[in-house]
Amino acid sequence: MSEQAQKPNVDEEKVEEIQQEAVEPVETDDPLEEAIARVQELEEQLKAQIEESAKKEQDLLLRTRAEIDNIRRRTEQDVEKAHKFALEKFSKDLLNTVDNLERALATPANTEDESIKALFDGVELTLKELISTLDRYGVEAVGAVGESFNPDLHQAISMQPAEGFESNQITTVLQKGYTLNGRVIRPAMVMVAA
To answer: Where along the sequence do coiled-coil regions lie (predicted)?
Structure first.
């Protein structure tokens, strides 16, 4: 009986082995299945690379659009500045004429003589017309007696104590300064109270 008792155990073990083999995938060395697995793996890698390339392309597209917008804005600003300050050199040249006309009017003269009076009136009208033309194009005078000294607009020639003026107040304007659309084209030369 002992032999018979052992035989059923041996049969049970064989049944269990067969069942396990049926459950476990059979590993075969079939080249077709290996090729299919390799193709599937390559397909997944290609899909990942395509997704990565698409993301990079999208990022590059966004960056390029942003750069184009920045270039467009800078160009518009440059054109605006060119229009705004195109008259700067011409305006500087006209300032000498304004200075000369103001000096002509500041000289003492015999205003009783009609020919001299007419000459002064003509110079005065010419100066007014020239200043109004400069104003139309954005050229404005800066630097007046009593203003506070501003190093962005004024150039101090000297500092002297002066009665009736506070410290850093302009006491004398030696030459008017001018701005073109807010940009200084010539600083005012002034004397400042100490």
So the answer is: 32-74
CA distances from 184 to 21, 24, 72, 91 (A): 94, 89, 27, 11
Count Cβ atoms below 10 Å from residue 119 Cβ, excluding itself.
Answer: 13
Beta-carbon contacts of 109 under 8 Å, excluding residues fewer than 6 positions away, are 116, 120
DSSP line for the chain: -HHHHHHHHHHHHHHHHHHHHHHSPPP---HHHHHHHHHHHHHHHHHHHHHHHHHHHHHHHHHHHHHHHHHHHHHHHHHHHHHHHTTHHHHHHHHHHHHHHHHHHHS---TTSHHHHHHHHHHHHHHHHHHHHHHHTTEEEE--TTSBP-TTTEEEEEEE--TT--TTBEEEEEE-EEEETTEEEEPEEEEEE-
pLDDT exceeds 60 at position 3: no
Distance CA 193, CA 117 (A): 37
